[in-house]
Amino acid sequence: MGVDLGELFTKEPCRFEDFKDQVVALDGYNILHQFLSSIRQRDGTPLKDAQGRITSHLSGLLYRTANMAAARIRPVYIFDGTPHPLKARTIQQRRERKEQAEREWKEALEKGDLEKAKSKAQQTSRVTTEIIEQSKQLLQALGIPSIQAPSEGEAQASYMVQQGDAFAVGSQDFDCLLFGAPLLIRNLTSSEKRKLPNKQAYTTVHPERICLEPDEHQFSKDRIEPVLEQFSSLQQQTKQKNLFDF
């Protein structure tokens, strides 16, 4: 789950074709999670092969990569490494939420409520080591490079853009901006329809770019003041509570 910084930045609309012949460093974990969450059957069950192995991520990865290749975009997928110890509590909380969602998914199926069942099922998706390895094997077969980051994938992707090894970071999250990525591309897909998280509804989306430049328009007073007020409030609260309680 990324840091919600969306209101701080100006989002410039762009086209899928605008990134022709450009190297884009993609947040692999973020993308796989999207596929595992959204590519499911009516009752919430993910796609599986004849042996019962989940294939939602492979289906999504194949078509997404093929669309990029057709547009002559040069993707490189970055996968997360070992998480920082400070993230342990957050990871545990996510695990507990997924377990709760799994129980609610089964209850909804027993009641025949398929809409709720699928919504809850989408909250149970897990990007396992096996899923990552399968994804790497598929990318290798397609001739698409992938990189194993030492820790956070978005940090690695951001560093690559800073060094000039990639044109931009491709991710739905804003975390890479905190890591210093000069350019973020969101909604990097040729599809104009995207499913809303945990809802049985779709919305029209278009690629958008966020350029991390400290100009007057990007960081205007009306954008910064609400954030400063929230930060000031957070400082007061942390005097009385543990920071990790938020």
Short description:
The chain has 246 residues and is an alpha/beta fold.
For this entry, give a set of tags.
Rossmann fold; 9 strands; 8 helices; 246 residues; 2 domains; alpha/beta; globular
**Care to count the β-strands?**
9
Overall 3D shape:
globular
Distance between the first and last residues' Cα? 14 Å
- How do the helices and strands follow one another from N- to C-terminus? EEHHEHHHEHEHEEEEH
Under the CATH scheme, the architecture of the largest domain is: 3-Layer(aba) Sandwich
Our count of domains comes out at 2
Biggest sheet strand order reads: 1-9-6-5-2-3-4
CATH superfamily of the largest domain: 5'-nuclease
Rg, rounded, reads 19 Å
Low-confidence parts, pLDDT < 50 over ≥5 residues?
A: 242-246
CATH level 1 name of the largest domain: Alpha Beta
Helix content: 40-55%
Number of helices: 8
- Oligomeric state, counting identical vs distinct chains: single chain
Strand content: 5-15%
The description of the largest β-sheet is:
7 strands, mixed
Structural class: alpha/beta
Mean of all residue-level pLDDT scores: 86
CATH third-tier fold name of the largest domain: Rossmann fold
What does this structure look like?
There is one protein chain. With 246 residues, the protein is an alpha/beta fold. The protein folds into two domains: 10-213, Rossmann fold, CATH 3.40.50.1010; 217-246. It is 42% helix and 13% strand. It has eight helices and nine strands.
Helix/strand layout:
Blueprint: E1 12-13, E2 23-27, H1 28-38, H2 56-70, E3 74-79, H3 88-111, H4 114-121, H5 129-142, E4 146-148, H6 153-162, E5 168-170, H7 175-178, E6 183-186, E7 193-195, E8 202-204, E9 208-211, H8 221-238
Parallel strand pairs: 2-3, 2-5, 3-4, 5-6
Antiparallel strand pairs: 1-9, 6-9, 7-8
Helix pairs in contact: 1-2, 2-5, 3-4
